[in-house]
């Protein structure tokens, strides 16, 4: 398997992609962030909806402060990356699920375990 093929299926190669996506959201670049969604996600979450979700999260957790770390793991035919973020009031995970085409097929917000 070539390095390019390996990176398509290696969840650890997606950690930087996940960090970059979180940084887009933090910077308020919701239009750019949603371009990384697969077709199903694009139909469910618009840029305006993503902004609404983010604003709600920040109002509950306090201002975003930093990215603490990442953890990647394969799951089914997907790769999940947990991005642990420090907010003013508490740390919180942003879980991004990537399909084989490196598009975001799932997005969840949850307390770290």
Briefly, what is this?
This protein is α+β, with helices and mostly antiparallel strands.
What does this entry look like structurally?
The chain is of the alpha+beta class. It has a single domain (3-107), classed as Roll (Nuclear Transport Factor 2, Chain: A). It has helices at 3-9, 15-26, 30-34, 39-44, 47-61, and strands at 64-75, 78-87, 91-98, 104-110. The chain is globular. Residues 1-8 have low confidence and may be disordered.
Tag the structure with descriptive keywords.
113 residues, alpha+beta, Nuclear Transport Factor 2, Chain: A, four-stranded antiparallel sheet, 4 strands, 40% helix
Give the N-terminus to C-terminus distance in angstroms.
34 Å
Question: How many β strands by DSSP?
Answer: 4
Q: What composes the largest sheet? A: 4 strands, antiparallel
Strand order in the largest sheet: 1-2-3-4
Secondary structure layout:
Elements: H1 3-9, H2 15-26, H3 30-34, H4 39-44, H5 47-61, E1 64-75, E2 78-87, E3 91-98, E4 104-110
């Amino acid at each position: 398997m070539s390095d390019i093929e390996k990176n398509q299926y290696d969840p650890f190669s997606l950690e930087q992609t996940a960090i970059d996506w979180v940084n887009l959201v933090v910077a308020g670049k919701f239009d750019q962030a949603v371009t990384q969604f697969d077709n199903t996600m694009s139909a469910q979450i618009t840029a305006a909806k993503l902004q609404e979700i983010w604003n709600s999260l920040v109002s509950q957790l306090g201002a975003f402060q930093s990215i603490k770390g990442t953890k990647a793991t394969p799951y089914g035919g997907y790769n999940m990356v947990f991005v642990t973020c420090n907010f003013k009031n508490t740390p919180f995970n942003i879980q991004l699920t990537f399909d084989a085409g490196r598009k975001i097929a799932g997005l969840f917000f949850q307390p770290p375990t």
